[in-house]
Amino acid sequence: MMASDLYAENSDVLAIFFDLDNTLIQTRKADARTCSKLVEVLQQEYGLPQDAAVESATTFLRAFRARPDDDTYGLDEWPAHLWRNSLPKNYRHIAKNISAEWINLRFKNLALTNDVIHLLETLREDYLLGLITNGPSRAQWQKIERLGLRKYFDCLLVSGDLPWEKPDQEIFLEACKKLNVEPRTCIMVGDKLETDIKGGKEAELGGTVWIPLQKDEESSDLPDFTIEKVTELPEVLPNSPKLKRTIAKVC
Which InterPro entries does the protein's record reference (predicted)? Predict the structure, then answer.
């Protein structure tokens, strides 16, 4: 079944579910940009040699991506711990300061762009919106609160609070239940084939929209649509002129 055929049969889209990281916010790019800036800070303000600054930031980012939170530490204490383990021994006393700079600069880089804000505000006029994100509860809710995301969504689900995570169909069905909509009337938008797209299909949602993290990434679990960035989403929604033209050609 072609994507246009799918929407021709299920044109009553009521809800759109979004992934968070690397879909609505560019987490990997923002984190890399933040660490790049901290390399400069480590050199200019604390006197680390360039090689040591780069190695420290690279080691930190690798560890943080592998484990963004550890609930045996305070939420802001965990990155400080990772920085302490990443810095050369004679610079570990600055870990707390560098961690504070990491947190502040990171959330500036993670902030929703004006285009994405406009997208969400516009979509809310016609659709229910849900956020479905995998990850540790504290770390994901910190993003949601610090970035002011609550006001854009009718439903927010973080896998760390639940018995399931994407691609388990139950997390998608839970979102449908909270919004009182049928799965066939919902669309899932995300960057990961193995979680967002596979899970959306297994939950029998009305459609899936994939935003590849890398342009050369290939899809085995074929999404119904592929777009380059989330702001292109209106181009593949049922009421868009582009989609109507596609359906007309197929029919």
Answer: HAD-like_hydrolase, HAD-like_sf, HAD-SF_hydro_IA, HAD-SF_hydro_IA_CTE7, HAD_sf
